[in-house]
Amino acid sequence: MSRLRGYLAILGVLLAWGSSYSISRIAMGFMSPFMLSMFRFLIGGLVLLLISRGLVVNLRAFINALLNSASFVILLNLAIMYTSNPALASVLVYTQPVFVLIISAVMGYERISTLQAVGVALAFLGIVVSVGSVSFDIGSVLAVIGGFVWALGTIYYRRELIHEDLIRLNASMGLISALIALPTLIINPRIDLTPQAILWGVLVALVAQVTGFLLWFIGIRELGAVTASSMSLLVPVFAYAFAYALLGRAPTVIEALGSAVTLIGVFLAQGGAALKLRK
User: Where is pLDDT greater, at 192 or 221?
Assistant: First the structure.
């Protein structure tokens, strides 16, 4: 029963995070990406605080929030806004495990196996194919940078905060990120002060920041990190489905092909890590 609960939780993650790209694109019709980031940080952080009834407040939590939340989410929102298809941004962001592997190898934390090396090569080949169809626009660049920043944050979390309570840590991450991101409103504070705009902003926060993360924690607890992480690679597939359903945007043949190659590469890179853990 616990494994069934875990699989259902990951299905919820796929629906929540898969839809969040298109929902964010719609929300940015009413507000700037910087204002949407503030909605996500503040509302998400406050709701998670009510659930966790506590915060993690120290320098390590600040650095974690800077990498894993503030910088990453702002880059992600900008990528969603400026890329040709928000679902393509999800594929490029999900190269994060590949960057984790490369950075870990460069820093001497981990050795890359042959299987992982093949995965890395396929992932970057898929990126070239995918974005070649849209001339590597600014949204694509920002999405790849977002994946790299997320990778830095993941490595920092594993080394410095792995034993912290996850819900409290994410509540702290949201609220600290709101403070970090506040100055970005100077760049563009645009928001339509209408009930519709507020609704979309709140929806992004509840779907992406609260529901997605809570279900993610349940999935990791019931299935383990390796299984849950492998299944999460289906998020871009769901993102493409939601982009078509909500925005009427279907991927081009080249985008679909490149995205498939990228995700296969990420899966192989991650699968190589799983084999090492089993040994």
Answer: 192
